[in-house]
Amino acid sequence: MEKELVFGHQNPDTDAIGTAIAYSYLQNKLGYNTEAVALGEPNDETAFALKKFGFKAPRVIKTAANEVKEVMLVDHNEPQQSVSDIDQVTVTHVVDHHRIMNFNTSMPLFYLAEPVGCTSTIMFGLYKHFKVEIPKNIAGIMLSAIISDTLLLKSPTTTDRDKKAVKELAEIAGVGYEKYGLEELKAGTNIASKSEEELIDLDAKSFELNGKNVRVAQINVVDLPEALERKEAFLKTMKDSANSKGYDLFMLLITNVLDSDSTALVIGSDEALASFEKAFGEVKDSEISLPGVVSRKKQVVPPLTEAFK
Where does the record place the DHHA2 domain (predicted)? Predict the structure, then answer.
């Protein structure tokens, strides 16, 4: 059987990398020949989780068609978030928890999308469905993914299934999920050592909204005022990125993981900013407070999608 590559989205987070590892292991147990790879280097939080559970970071690929004919996607489906030559390979499997947009294939495929907090929660169900035992290290990386995506079960995206999966996976992995979860989340909040260019691209996704190119980046912190001391530098870097890459709107969501609140920095064309304000309210000096907003997937993209119609 020819090898397939399994990967998550560009600028990968713990879900994109962790679920790719878990899905590759499961598919290999089911008779496929797969390798988990990544579309970027792991961030600090993901590196912490990989080290904790004894994994090496998956190798990073820029293209897929030079290696394989078929691929499996996790934690994304939109082409602009995927490998650059996604149109040159056949997608055989997708496991995701996001909206479905601009995705089409010429051949039938396995597609599983569910409205849960994390793709690893879906993966947990697949292991049970296929009656495949979850190894300790796989349980740990899946647990890490759910903790990351749900902000330790505090995000509004969290479902009862996520909570159940976290408890069972923590038991298999041999960790206390609350203590470990705080350690994991804090590992991803060290922004002082990173440049503005690095931070606005660390966890960023592009969305096509009614013909407009919208970029939404997110960084997690434990000290929001300290992060906002870099506001002018962030705005300059965002403007440079928008000009060079053609973004109509660039939003940087700065999220305090301890109190589950965010402040957003926003730049863009007058038309795009008007649509943004229709969704979230007035932006003053390129800044807006968003109490309780922590989820790009559930609390940012849906209202933006409606506002840009």
Answer: 181-308
Q: Which two tokens stand for residue 228?
A: 């906002």
How far apart CA 283 and CA 276 sit, in angstroms, is: 9
- The mean pLDDT of 286-302, rounded to a whole number, is 94
Q: What are phi and psi of 91, to 5 degrees?
A: -85, 120
Taking Cα atoms as reference points, which of 283, 201, 189 lies closest to residue 240? 201
pLDDT of 34-90, one tens digit each?
999 999 999 999 999 999 999 999 999 999 999 999 999 999 999 999 999 999 999
Residue 258 has pLDDT above 90, yes or no: no
Please name the residues in contact with 162: beta carbons below 8 A apart, sequence gap of 6 or more.
116, 117, 118, 121, 146, 150, 153
Strands across the sheet with 4-7, in order?
Answer: 34-36, 4-7, 70-74, 90-96, 110-113
Distance from C-alpha of 108 to C-alpha of 98, rounded to nearest angstrom: 20
Q: How many CA atoms lie within 13 A of 88 on its CB side?
A: 9
User: pTM of the entire structure?
Assistant: 0.87
The two structure tokens encoding residue 165: 């999966």
Sheet containing 212-221, strands listed edge to edge, beginning at the edge strand earlier in sequence = 204-209, 212-221, 249-256, 261-268, 287-290
Name 78's Cβ contacts closer than 8 Å, sequence gap at least 6: 98, 101, 102, 103, 207
DSSP state, 86?
A: G
Checking 282-285 for CB contacts under 8 A at 24+ apart, the result is: none
Tokens describing residue 229: 């001391």
